[in-house]
Design a protein that fits this description.
The protein has 132 residues and is of the alpha/beta class. It has one domain: 2,3-Dihydroxybiphenyl 1,2-Dioxygenase, domain 1.
Length: 132
């Protein structure tokens, strides 16, 4: 189980800082720091750093094996994130779907793609025992 005194850190490439800030702020992430070559966000309680590196952008991303995101423990928060993504016209990589329907690990999910083609998954498990 997660300790509340720890913060996960992820560093990813970005193409352009302004569009990156716009995207992540629309997700509800707080801009923590900005430098000439990177921006750091409070990403739902964890730290995501987007490094300006346009030559490192994946031009044809796939969901597997590389993506990151949030697993919501409350369905209302998942619904709110989905509604916000639709309202703010964020780019969907995969529209909302149910995975593993009828099985213990059934969950609702959708994927967004940020301006540098990083893939973000947002999901909610009906059975909280399946989160980990």
């Amino acid at each position: 189980m997660r300790q509340t005194n720890k913060v996960f850190h992820l560093a990813i490439p970005c193409k352009e800082l302004n569009e990156t800030v716009d995207f992540y702020e629309k997700l509800g992430c707080k801009l923590a720091r900005r430098y000439d070559d990177r921006v750091t966000f409070d990403f739902f309680g964890d730290q995501v750093v987007c490094h300006l590196s346009p030559d490192e952008v994946d031009e044809a991303p796939n969901m597997y094996p590389r993506h990151y995101g949030i697993t919501f423990l409350e369905k209302g928060e998942y619904d709110q994130a989905l509604e916000s993504a639709i309202r703010d016209e964020l780019s969907f990589f995969k529209t909302p779907m149910v995975r593993f329907e009828g099985k213990k690990e059934e969950h609702m999910t959708f994927f967004l793609v940020d301006p540098a083609n990083n893939l973000l998954e947002f999901k909610y498990y009906h059975n909280p025992d399946m989160v980990y």
